[in-house]
Amino acid sequence: MLTIRDVLSSLGGVPSLLNTPLPAFSQFIRLASKLRPAIVHQQVHHWTPSVAPQSLPDDVSRFLVGRLSIPKTSVDGLWEALKDGIWYDGPSLLGEDWVPLPECTPESARPRLSARMLFPPAQVCMNSECLGHGKLLRWKDDPKRITLFTFSEGVQDALAVQLQCYRCGTVYYPNYTAYQGIRRYYAGLPEFVQVSDHKYVERTVLEHFTMLSVLSWTSATNAAHIYHESLSQLKDAEREIARYRLRAEHTWDGFVILALLRDARDQSTVLEVPNGGEQKDRFTAAMRARNERIRRSGQPEYAHYCTRCVRRFDDDGEAAFIDCIVIDGVSIGRPCCGVRHCRGELHTPQDHWCLEHMDQANFCVVEGCRLPHRLRFRTCELHAAIEEHYDATGKGMFNLRTRLQRQRVSHPTDSITPAAPVDEEIEVEVEGGRVVYASGLGLAPAIATGTTAPSQDVSSTSSGPSFQSTADVPVPILCPEKEVTGNYTARGRFGRRHTHNEQTFVRPCAMITCRETFYGSETVPQVLDMLKKKHLIPGSRPRYAYFDNNCILFKHCDSLPGETIHLEMGLPVDVFHWKCKHKKTDEACSYHCNPLAFPELLGEDGKSSHFNSSAAEQTNVWFGGYHAIVREMSAVKYDFFLDEMILRKNEITRAKLEREGCRPGYRTELRFASTDVSS
Ligand SMILES: [Zn+2]
Ligand SMILES: [Zn+2]
Ligand SMILES: [Zn+2]
Ligand SMILES: [Zn+2]
Ligand SMILES: [Zn+2]
């Protein structure tokens, strides 16, 4: 470590150096420390990066002369005296609080040095197959002019250096290397994340955005707004300059990259994406891979337990533990194929049909009608009245703004255009060829589980529980002759279909363990299927599952030959729900789903429930808050975003449980097992 004595004795040799002004002296130490990478890469290629070079490269010394306003002899003299200290103690000389001098407008159009520079973390080639392995890298071209979006210093101009190994051709960028078309990120989390060719966002800023999304449903667009209004520190004249603008695609990409890097770190791998192609497609495969892994193996908190969701309930003196989850549906969704229950992926979120069902575009949009639609219309001759009605209402009653106003939901987000139709399915009653009543069905109505009658899908399922078996429930085709004059009810879908809801498994301590997208409707066979597939590891199934439709679920299981799950786990409905909504005369209700019939679940008073389901309810309310943000997302983005929100929310919940003394832990036998939830 450099001491004052060292400094004085080395400076003493050159008396003129003692006239150096103190600010220039301290800035010299810090700037030279900052520029170490710029110095080392100009040495001969077998130079050992840990040894301080004898003299400063010309451009660096010129730069220091300009910035510090001291003569070249002083700069060279200071280097001579201080180089070893700067070289070895460099990083510690640059404290967190070091603020470089304000950037002066670079005189040359292609500046090579600046007080704010991003360097690749590597100094020598790391490619183990390269002959130049361990040899010093060289600058590739001049550094790029970039913009930094920082947390505490606002928007800043800076330079980013790219290095190259001339043996193997690997290019080293500040965040990653590029070699043979693969962009490989460095391990760990970088201080600045590159979100476009010339823009880098400080990690703290991206962490802040992610927390805004978790805690207050902030969209990527709004995050970019927030940055400009409260963090950018831009003067009025600078606000419209394009390179100082942070846009929604930047905050979104930053969110994605940070989440992927964090994931790679937790999985002890490195993130690799294609280096070529368009930025918008770059991370799709990596996101898809994580989505798939979480769907199959669950969230990290899948193996969670704590004193709030596990109860010790001794039986005949033997220690026994019981746990439970709460099953519920949350009304959020994304565009999906218009064919009911089809899980085919849309090419873009604007499409109405998946690849397989493209031919559906030729038909009338009234459900069950197989006639071709009229030219430039969406309906056939027979159903013209329905389309006229839809158009005549100006689509007004069916657009999101009206809907939200009616529900008095204020949700300021510009991730969607509020006047856009909510992609309507409308239901009409027609009398004598005239529409007498119409209602929109677009926004999935809040799934008041327990009050919803079991859909016809339950009875139409014959091939056992599976997602596929509920698909394509035949819709009776109305007889055309009757339609023209008669009275009938019909549904027309004038926009895209959205997935029906997200089904969640939440523990009574608010930990979300699983999520699954339900298509078409929330049906009991789907819930049963999910319950099984999410708990394939022996012993992973909770002892109890609260679900408002448990009586239907119980009867459904009971009707399936060989089904035993309903005998192996308790399927109660919650106490409040049971009192208000269930028939006490029905056997399934009064016996199997009666929460009062399970002593392990009852509290001290013998009447209320031991497990508090309100935390789970709260969690689902929180989850539902994303409806507006995710409504226009593609399937890949949707899954990735929601998984990340749950992951971060669970981290917050876990910390809270820890603080409150609930001793959260992981069941090791589940934590490292991987389930295969194939479907
Ligand atoms: Zn190399
Ligand atoms: Zn818990
Ligand atoms: Zn389809
Ligand atoms: Zn028709
Ligand atoms: Zn019931």
TrEMBL record:
Task: List residues of the CxC5 like cysteine cluster associated with KDZ domain.
Answer: 114-230
Question: What is the protein name stated in its UniProt record?
Answer: CxC5 like cysteine cluster associated with KDZ domain-containing protein
Top-rank taxon of the source lineage equals Eukaryota
- InterPro entries from the UniProt entry: CxC5, CxC6
The residues covered by the CxC6 like cysteine cluster associated with KDZ domain are 326-389
Query: What species is given as this protein's source?
Result: Lentinus tigrinus ALCF2SS1-6
